[in-house]
């Protein structure tokens, strides 16, 4: 992974001191809350319903065991003993005290971490495919470019006060695991027919109250122009994005109103004058970055392992775990293992300090000391020897992170909702907990197969309900919590926005309603047809009929 | 009035003149609308320097043709969150090679000064109810910059060695 040098270290520690001074000025009353707001936001600090919340950046989801131990320490020392992994591959703490925040940032800086630009109207922490570098289907590893973009965007002076927040995602595979179509800018690393690396770039995707699928601005831009082209894209947005209405300020609205052709033309005009300048990436810099992400020294291992095969035959649960939580690695004899943070009775994405310490220990023992966080709020061990799978499975069961439910309906994405969030209309965690409680028959989950269910507690869509095959959206009806169901969303390469099925359900009705949707699917599916494929074939009507049969 | 110029606090000799007021002698800053309306007479004015005050609704290309007539371009921040003028300043410097003063006016606060400086602003009218002596500390807080901007022609990767 990327290692700080003296410049990176100095930048982060200067930032800590700057923020320490800003907090002191706030506590002395020299800064009003309104003036403090953009400063704390650019350091990842929100004021929530009950307390401040700090969101710590995990750039493109890559995390070392040393860093994970520090996250555990912070959870224990400054919070209530747990942290929450988010849909942007970050971690947030919900109960820090304002006066402790500078110390928290200093503690993070010790392990090359920070909370820079994890909130505010700036370029946010960059997300990427959690399987970057190890996925069997990958064309090019997006992490070196993610780091190049991270550095370029960090404290970019021109883009610190954009009309609205701005999110990048990168993938280097055909199979999109980073939801690039739902980002302000989505990059796919591609290789053209001359063998040159470059980017297919999409712009103007997003969720929120106006969900949009990003549109292609260029099928190929040479990698050397990555920063100049991106800067032109941001400059046009900074100059012309709407500032009169917060809800119309994201770039998706600019693209929608201006049209992708006009936007592209303005970007190309700016780029024509900016290209080949100082920001042009040279091979030396790209190679330097690629070296940080070079594959580790893998052992020469057989493709299969007899002990694993024996255990699969003997233990159905192990087989189910292999089936859902373990993926093929590009290196023979290795596997990619997902740790499910979606277990019964736990808010999706929550991890205790003790679990974090154990995860760090296991990463050292079984995954070369490195792990990844995912935008679906799980953790991945990227480099596990196949022969270690039975031992790792035992260890993960012991700390309740071996639920064999990855990409099943209970591997749900869920925002913090009204339990924490000042914006929410309804609670989302209790719905998630009730669903995982009800749907605890592993055989049934596996029979349902790939099925993404996402829950948001309000229209801001932090729980990605628009991109769920089944989406649940919390709404407020005369002071009561109600839940809408959407069907047909997907954040993969075939991205689509879910459609509302009909009137909302009460808190008591929502879980039975989801069960009705599932029954409609199992009765209508053909052979191995997934939920999404089935929905796309039969349409909304059968689901609607079942859900509203009695009305 | 005291302003920050060249990262020092100085007494300002420029006078902001409202549209309905007659122009006094000396260095004046007028609105872009007045410049556009009285351009022909203003070009011949020889009683002092001329500056123009530009709202963020106008972009660099809107004033590019007239830059040779301006000693000061004052880019206004109606609210500090409005970041359009950062791009305007950069383009005035880097694309239109404007070498006169670029001044920040309006909601100009300590914690925005460093980014403004990096984008090519070189004069700052700190908001009247804020301490200018405090604000000037903003320039020494951060010393590492990753990306090129008006103040630094090279990205960090070309300076790391």
Give a quick set of tags describing it.
heterodimer, A: 551 residues, alpha+beta, Sulfite Reductase Hemoprotein, domain 2, Sulfite Reductase Hemoprotein, domain 1, 4 domains, 6-stranded mixed beta sheet, 5-stranded antiparallel beta sheet, 18 helices, 21 strands, B: 161 residues, alpha/beta, TIM Barrel, 8-stranded mixed beta sheet, 5 helices, 8 strands
Structure description:
The complex is a heterodimer of chains A (551) and B (161). With 551 residues, chain A is α+β, with helices and mostly antiparallel strands. Chain A has 18 helices and 21 strands. Chain A has 4 domains: 6-110, Sulfite Reductase Hemoprotein, domain 2, CATH 3.90.480; 134-290, Sulfite Reductase Hemoprotein, domain 1; 306-398, Sulfite Reductase Hemoprotein, domain 2, CATH 3.90.480; 413-547, Sulfite Reductase Hemoprotein, domain 1 (2-Layer Sandwich). In chain A, 37% of the residues lie in helices and 17% in strands. In chain A, strands 16, 17, 18, 19, 20 and 21 form a 6-stranded mixed sheet that branches. In chain A, strands 1-2-5-4-13 form a 5-stranded antiparallel sheet. Chain A has a 5-stranded antiparallel sheet with strand order 3-14-15-12-11. In chain A, helix 6 (226-240) crosses helix 8, helix 10 (306-314) crosses helix 11 (316-325) and helix 16 (510-524) packs across helix 17. The mean pLDDT of chain A is 95. With 161 residues, chain B is of the alpha/beta class. Chain B has a single domain (2-158), classed as Alpha-Beta Barrel (TIM Barrel). Chain B has helices at 32-43, 60-63, 84-94, 110-118, 132-135; strands spanning 2-5, 8-11, 15-16, 28-31, 50-54, 72-77, 101-106, 123-124. Chain B starts with a strand and ends in a 26-residue tail after the last helix.
Topology at a glance:
The complex is a heterodimer of chains A (551) and B (161).
Chain A: H1 6-27, H2 33-41, E1 45-47, E2 52-56, E3 62-64, H3 65-78, E4 82-85, E5 91-93, H4 101-110, E6 127-128, H5 143-153, E7 168-171, E8 185-191, E9 197-203, E10 215-222, H6 226-240, H7 251-258, H8 260-274, H9 283-292, H10 306-314, H11 316-325, E11 326-328, E12 334-339, E13 350-352, H12 353-366, E14 370-373, E15 379-385, H13 389-398, E16 413-414, H14 429-438, H15 442-448, E17 453-456, E18 470-477, E19 480-487, E20 499-500, E21 505-506, H16 510-524, H17 531-538, H18 541-547
Parallel strand pairs in A: 6-7, 7-8, 16-17, 17-18
Antiparallel strand pairs in A: 1-2, 2-5, 3-14, 4-5, 4-13, 8-9, 9-10, 11-12, 12-15, 14-15, 18-19, 19-20, 19-21
Chain B: E1 2-5, E2 8-11, E3 15-16, E4 28-31, H1 32-43, E5 50-54, H2 60-63, E6 72-77, H3 84-94, E7 101-106, H4 110-118, E8 123-124, H5 132-135
Parallel strand pairs in B: 3-4, 4-5, 5-6, 6-7, 7-8
Antiparallel strand pairs in B: 1-2, 1-8
């Amino acid at each position: 992974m990327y290692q700080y040098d003296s410049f990176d270290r100095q930048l982060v520690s200067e930032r800590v001191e700057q923020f320490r001074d800003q907090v002191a000025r706030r506590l002395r009353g020299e800064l009003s809350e309104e003036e403090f707001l953009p400063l704390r936001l650019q350091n990842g600090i929100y004021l929530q319903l009950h307390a401040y919340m700090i969101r710590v950046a995990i750039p493109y989801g890559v995390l070392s065991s040393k860093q994970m131990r520090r996250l555990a320490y912070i959870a224990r020392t400054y919070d209530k003993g747990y942290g929450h992994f988010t849909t942007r591959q970050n971690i947030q703490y919900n109960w820090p005290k304002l006066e402790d925040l500078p110390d928290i940032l200093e503690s993070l800086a010790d392990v090359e971490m920070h909370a820079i630009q994890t909130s505010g109207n700036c370029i946010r922490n960059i997300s990427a495919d959690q399987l970057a570098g190890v996925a069997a289907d990958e064309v090019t590893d997006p992490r070196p470019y993610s780091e190049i973009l991270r550095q370029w965007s960090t404290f970019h002076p021109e883009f610190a006060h954009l009309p609205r927040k701005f999110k990048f995602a990168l993938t280097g595979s055909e199979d999109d695991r980073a939801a690039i179509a739902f980002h302000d800018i989505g990059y796919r690393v591609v290789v053209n027919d001359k063998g040159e690396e470059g980017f297919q770039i999409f712009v103007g995707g997003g969720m929120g109250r106006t969900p949009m699928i990003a549109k292609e601005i260029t099928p190929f831009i040479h990698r050397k122009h990555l920063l100049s082209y991106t800067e032109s894209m941001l400059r046009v947005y900074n100059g012309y994005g709407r500032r009169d209405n917060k809800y119309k300020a994201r770039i998706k609205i600019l693209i929608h109103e201006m049209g992708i052709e006009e936007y592209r033309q303005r970007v190309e005009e700016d780029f024509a004058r900016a290209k080949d300048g100082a920001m042009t990436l040279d091979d030396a810099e790209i190679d330097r970055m690629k070296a940080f992400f070079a594959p580790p020294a893998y052992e020469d291992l057989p493709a299969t392992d007899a002990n694993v095969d024996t255990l699969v035959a003997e233990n159905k649960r192990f087989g189910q775990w292999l089936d859902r939580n373990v993926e093929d690695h590009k290196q023979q004899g290795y596997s990619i293992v997902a740790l499910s943070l979606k277990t019964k009775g736990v808010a999706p994405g929550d991890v205790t300090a003790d679990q974090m310490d154990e995860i760090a220990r296991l990463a050292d023992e079984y995954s070369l000391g490195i792990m990844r966080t995912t935008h679906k709020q799980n953790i991945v061990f990227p480099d596990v020897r196949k022969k270690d799978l039975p031992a790792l499975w035992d260890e993960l069961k012991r700390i309740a992170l071996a639920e064999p439910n990855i990409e099943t309906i209970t591997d749900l994405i869920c925002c913090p909702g009204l339990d924490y969030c000042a914006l929410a209309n309804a609670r989302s965690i209790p719905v998630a907990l009730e669903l995982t409680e009800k749907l605890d028959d592993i055989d049934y989950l596996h029979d349902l197969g790939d099925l993404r269910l996402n829950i948001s507690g309000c229209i801001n869509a932090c729980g990605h309900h628009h991109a769920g095959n089944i989406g649940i959206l919390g709404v407020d009806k005369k002071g009561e919590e109600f839940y809408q169901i959407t069907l047909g969303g997907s954040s993969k390469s075939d991205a689509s926005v879910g459609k509302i099925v009909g009137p909302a359900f009460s808190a008591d009705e929502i879980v039975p309603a989801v069960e009705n949707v599932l029954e409609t699917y199992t009765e209508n599916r053909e052979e191995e047809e997934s939920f999404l494929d089935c929905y796309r074939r039969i349409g909304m009507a059968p689901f609607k009929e079942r859900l509203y049969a009695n009305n | 009035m005291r302003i920050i110029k060249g990262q020092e606090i100085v007494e300002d000799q420029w006078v902001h003149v409202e549209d309905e007021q007659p122009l006094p002698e000396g260095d004046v800053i007028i609105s872009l609308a007045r410049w556009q309306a009285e351009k022909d007479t203003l070009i011949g004015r020889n009683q002092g320097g001329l500056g123009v005050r530009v709202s963020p609704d106008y972009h660099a290309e809107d004033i590019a043709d007239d830059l040779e007539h301006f000693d000061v371009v004052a880019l206004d921040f109606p609210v500090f969150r409005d970041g359009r003028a950062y791009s305007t300043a950069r383009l005035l410097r880097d694309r239109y090679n404007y070498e006169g003063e670029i001044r920040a006016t309006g909601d100009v606060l300590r914690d925005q000064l460093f980014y403004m400086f990096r984008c090519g602003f070189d004069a700052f009218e700190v908001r009247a109810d804020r301490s200018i002596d405090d604000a000037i500390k903003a320039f020494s807080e951060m010393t590492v910059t990753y990306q090129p901007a008006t103040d630094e022609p090279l990205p960090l990767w070309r300076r790391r060695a």
